[in-house]
Amino acid sequence: MKIIRLKNEEQVGLEASKIVINEINKKNNIVLGLATGSTPIPLYNNLIKFYNEGKVNFASVKTFNLDEYKGLKPTHIQSYRYFMNEKLFKHINIDLNNTHVPNGIDVENPSKYDLLINENGGIDLQILGLGVNGHIGFNEPNTDFNSLTSEVNLTESTIKANSRLFASIDEVPKKAISMGLKSIMNAKKIVLLATGKNKAKAIQQLIEGKLSVDWPCTILQEHSNVIVIIDEQAASELG
Ligand code: F6R
């Protein structure tokens, strides 16, 4: 695991964007795995900036997002499909047909998502955020390390953390569709981003803790190509 420690979230986003652009420029039909949430926003802003400067072309890029709230339509402003369209896709030359977000409404057979990823050659580069409780995607503590995409229950701590984006905590969906830990581990390369003091404990477990289902992120210790990019605050509990 390679650890890159930077000063603040802006630097984390910039560093991550350079890695993503470098990979796209090496393989223009790359398959990217993408995350939502606050952490990757500086990354997406930099991707848009570099696109506007002509430094990257998304015409052949394919994307698969990690997760979606159950019950939210793609047009719902809190849905992760809406988030991706607003924060990234509508600002770059990606073909929307090449972008995939798990379906929050038709959740009959979520593991079809893994088949679709495989049919597209698998994820070349997976971007991850990190939950306060160590979740990656919406794989909460005690998730089976062999899990594939499935319907998952969100923990109280995740519902509380995500309520900042909703009018009230009661509006936060209690379930989501998430790529599984195995789905994530199948990616050829993984870049995890974490910023802020509230991620310090999970970062400490990821980097210094033992492999444990109590901290789902620790499964990344078993992957051979992981870069963790963190700011000073997220690094503050490292020994
Ligand atoms: C989002 C996702 C989650 C977030 C995590 C951190 O697609 O899969 O694991 O990455 O909850 O969220 P933020 O960045 O908002 O702190």
Automatic annotation (TrEMBL):
Residues 20-225 form the Glucosamine/galactosamine-6-phosphate isomerase domain. SUPFAM superfamilies: NagB/RpiA/CoA transferase-like (SSF100950). Pathway: Amino-sugar metabolism; N-acetylneuraminate degradation; D-fructose 6-phosphate from N-acetylneuraminate: step 5/5. The keyword Hydrolase applies. GO terms for molecular function: glucosamine-6-phosphate deaminase activity; identical protein binding. GO terms for cellular component: cytoplasm. It catalyses: alpha-D-glucosamine 6-phosphate + H2O = beta-D-fructose 6-phosphate + NH4(+). This is Glucosamine-6-phosphate deaminase. One of its GO terms (biological process) is N-acetylglucosamine catabolic process. It comes from the Bacteria. The gene is nagB. Catalyzes the reversible isomerization-deamination of glucosamine 6-phosphate (GlcN6P) to form fructose 6-phosphate (Fru6P) and ammonium ion. HAMAP family: GlcN6P_deamin. Keywords: Carbohydrate metabolism, Hydrolase. It comes from Mesoplasma tabanidae. Belongs to the glucosamine/galactosamine-6-phosphate isomerase family. NagB subfamily.
